[in-house]
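Most newcomers find our protein records easier to grasp once they have seen one. Read left to right, the backbone structure tokens trace the chain's path through space. Once this layout is familiar, the rest of the handout is easier to follow. The record below serves as our worked example for the rest of this section:


***
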Amino acid sequence: MYNKKWSRGNSMEMSRQLGYSMRSTEYDDDDFSDLGRSMRTDVGRSMRTEHHIGRSMRLTDEPPLSRELDETQQSWLLEPNNKKKQPRVNLGFGASCTRRCFLWSICIFLTCAIIVALSLVTWKFAPKKHRTLSAPDNYTIALGKALTFFDIQKSGNLASDGKNDILWRGASARSDGQAAQNGSAAVNLTGGFYDAGDNIKFGFPGAYAITLLSWSVIEYRAKFVATGELDHAKSLIKWGTDYMLKTFNASGVDKIYCQVGLGGGAKPNDHYCWERPEDLDHFHDTRRSAIAVTSGSDLAGEMAAALSAASIVFKDQPGYSLKLVRGAKALYAFAKFRPAPFADGLPSSERAFYNSSHFNDELIWGSTWLYLATGNLTYLGDATIRATDNSNRRGGNPFGVFDWDNKLAGAQLLLTRLRMLQGPGYPYEQVLKQYNNETNLAMCAYLPQFKTFNRTAGPEFFPF
């Protein structure tokens, strides 16, 4: 459109100028001839010029500005890439990356770390769902029944721990200690466990039972959890330790109540009459006698072992665990500085029950458990220094036998494992190695008689 208007306007302007020139000038014939030729020549040139311009103008309908912009854009495309380079981060070892890539990597790493940390915290503190056995095996049933025996043997107010699963048992001996003997004042000695079918409470074998029950929970805690018996076992241990804490003064032990009830003589008493504990008041004064002793390394050593082992069981209750450790330390000090069997302080009529052969094995046993509970090397030193003066070398109990009277085999087993797993070294190594050898001999004394063994699903083996 633009080129056509420009061509028409240009031709008209040239014609007007030509007419004006002819009107204002006079020419002769020769001039006209020359003028005609000149005009034809000029017109021809003009027409060729117009044709050339029109042709060139018809090649595009876009204005010159647009064409210049296209050329500018093309110049940009053809221009070398001189973009500003991004800064890079030196990672060391000849490696580097862009700052943006580095920041993204840090963000991803922190996100993963937070996810892992949250997962660990959730796993640690979330309530654990323990698998329950729909059809318990014989060993699970046996464990439950063994613990039920302790429930049956409870003395005192059975509802004080919140439940009583033995429906045919009730409260009994709620005045124990009110008629203390040997010049002792009345004291509250309710609780604890009756010994057997009779109704006497013996401190020496009772403490041994609590030590072994605690040891079982320490060694096989996961099994107690899997069978649903952990809380049951812990409640029984606490029933026993609560009673033991009543039998002495932890701030300064000068005596220990070792027995409640009488068993000697021909008159009806707590051993003579086989009866329900709830019926004790039918035959005699319900304020039963309590016997205290002012020395007894065997009794105090065993009680120290029981409280120390229980303190490990109750690590999840720091206040109670510390209370047990304090009691164990006080009892061990009493045992160590008043070396004598507790039976020496019993009335002659009561010495027929649970006399200890010697007290050195209880001192080793008690110091071993105190070391395990506290980590105090003083107790480990006591456990090893008495090796040359234990009950076996004094003609006491048979070698390798572990029972309520001889604790040496149990202490040697604990210390052998300590040597194998931790290796305390000098000055304990020589005696610990001796304990290790004696433990091996004790095991070999049992095993060579049998060529094959039956195994439990545990797997534990038994030679019968």
About this structure: Residues 359-464 form one domain. The chain has two domains: 137-356, 359-464. The mean pLDDT is 78.
